Automatic annotation (TrEMBL):
Keyword Oxidoreductase: yes
Family the entry assigns: Belongs to the ArsC family.
Protein name: Arsenate reductase family protein
Protein's organism: Amycolatopsis heterodermiae
Keywords attached to this entry: Oxidoreductase
Amino acid sequence: MEIWVNPACAKRRSAVSMLDEAGAEYTVRRYLDDPPTAKELKAVLKRLSLEPWDITRTTEAIAKELGLKTWGRTPADRARWIDALAEHPKLIQRPIITADDGTTVVARTPEAVQSVL
């Protein structure tokens, strides 16, 4: 299992605590230091059954600079969004947990974390 985290994120602390309490084996990926590639993002989005705009933090300063709220949200716009997430990983909703069995969640709630345990 792998968890993508921003060390400053409160949701990360909660998710990691739950994983530790459950005795789960996992690796931590500090995705701001080790950003996912576009290929990795596509794979995670497929596992999540979500679109890139669904995991984008649109209130971040860089989102406003890029004008993300005005970007289209159609299949034709997908690559543009993925490229933006790869180039600006701070835009990625966190934490994201990818379990070895294929289960993948945006672990912002205890229920989401529990679903991968």
